[in-house]
Every structure is written in C-alpha cells, then in structure tokens.
User: Fold this.
Amino acid sequence: MPLSSRHLLGLQGVPKEDIQLILDTATTFREVLERPVKKVPTLQGKTIVNLFYENSTRTRISFELAQKRLSADTVNFSISTSSVSKGETFKDTIRNIEAMKVDMVVVRHAAAGTPLYLTKLCDANIINAGDGIHEHPTQALLDIYSIHEKLGRLAGLKVCIVGDVAHSRVALSNIFGLKTMGAEVSVCGPSTMIPRQIEELGVKVYYNIDEAIQANDVLNVLRIQLERKAREYFPSLREYSNYFGITEERLEKNGKDILILHPGPINRGVEISSGVADGNRQIILQQVTNGVAVRMAVLYLLGTMN
Assistant:
C-alpha cells in the first residue's frame, strides 16, 4: 500500500501504517548500504531540490546521499549564491524552481509551517527537513528505526526525551511518532525548557534526571540549542550539566542499562559527557547511518507515488 499522503510535513496525525511502511522500506535500503555498490536505479530521471534556508550538516548530507543512492538528479540550493541575496521573495524563488520541472523539494526553514506553505505553491512532493521549532519528521523516523533495530520493539518501551524540549523540533516529531508506534513517552529538563501543557500530548514530565533514568528504557538526549538563545533559560552551562547532563557516573549510580540516542551535533560536556558519547550504551553513529536508509525510504515511497 502507498503512503496516505504525497508529502511528509510532520508526524502529527500520520497513521501507524505509514510509519511502519517507512520503517520496513528503510530495512530494505539499509541492506543496500552494505553492498559494494550502494546504488539502485529506483528514482532515475527524478529531480530533487534541497532547499535549505538554515545551516545543516547531517540532514543535508544524509538527504543528498540518499538521493544519489537512488539515482535521482540532485540540486542543492544555497541562499548565499541565490537571488534571495538580491531581494527575491520566497514565493518567487519557489515558483521559479517549480518552473524548472522538479519532482520533489526537501526544505529546511526557520519559519514553522513553511513546508505546508510550499504544498500550496507547487505540485512537487514536499519533505520537511525541519521547520523552525515545529517538526523534523525524518529525524524522528530514524530515531524510531534505530531504537527498534537495537531493542527489537517499540510498543511498551519507555522513552524519555531529555533537554531543550521547548526549542526542539526533534522532540515534537519523536513524541508524535513514538506514541503512534505504542511507546510510552516522557520528557525531562529544566522547567524553563519544558513547554506548558505538554502533558496534553500524553507525555509524562520529569524535572529530575535521575528519576527519568530509573524509569525509562531509552534516553533521547537533545542538544542545547545555543543559536536559539537557549542559554537564557538556565544560569550556566556548568549548572545545566550538573543537573541534567548524561554522564557515566550518573548512569552507573542509577544502575540502569539504558539506551542513549542523540540527534547531533553534540555539545560534549554539556548535555552529554564524552564518556557516554563514545561509550557502549549509545547508538549515535548508527543513527547517522540509519538516517540515510530512512531518507531513502521516504524519497522512494513519495517519488514512486506519482
């Protein structure tokens, strides 16, 4: 069965069947990535534009690799070398890109709702690569895939999202996706970084990291987003690390063999210690590898719908 939508704008309201289809398809492409020739002709003839209005390393490279592994033609949009620097509006930029007959657009933008706005401007398939502090669906999908790959299940697992939840698009997509797949989701962080009424999404809130570690099977540790002025929400980086940082000592004190995820980039010594980031409890690099497979799956499923 095909996906229920021709766009991937977020995971809110996405049915379980769609998520499962993406995960199953990603498993197939994960095997492709282990082959000597890591390329299939699935999207040959398709043109995909990577429209990134915000800086990105992992997501942008991951999407570009996924597109090339599927034999699609890839065009990377750079603000600094585009007509945006000359005053061209976002609407005119999109209409010009559509006039070049592209098939798909992967977009990252600081304004929440931009991917949805794009669906009203052009006929291409739209994939949200992060819109403001709204959602980042493919990051959540690769997190979900990585958890399932490591632990063999999702239903009934207790997953805690730790850190700067208020500024995180990753957190929101993870909450929607994990709950849809049957996991029990909670969040933990300073009260200034936990959105008001987040319990209405069906998540539990912890303000003590030791309690969160003891109660959960998985920690998804978020980056402190310094570029979004996150430091204004706690006294100092040292204090944040003392109260909420994930360290080997803290994990050992709580006697819990817990799985550690981190979407990257890591602020070592702040939200996570180097010992944990490089230790045997984490699957951070596996997340990066799985990100290519998951994005191949999304591109394939959307690109073959038309």
Q: What stands out?
A: The beta strands are 47-52, 73-77, 104-109, 125-131, 158-162, 184-188, 204-206, 218-221, 259-261.
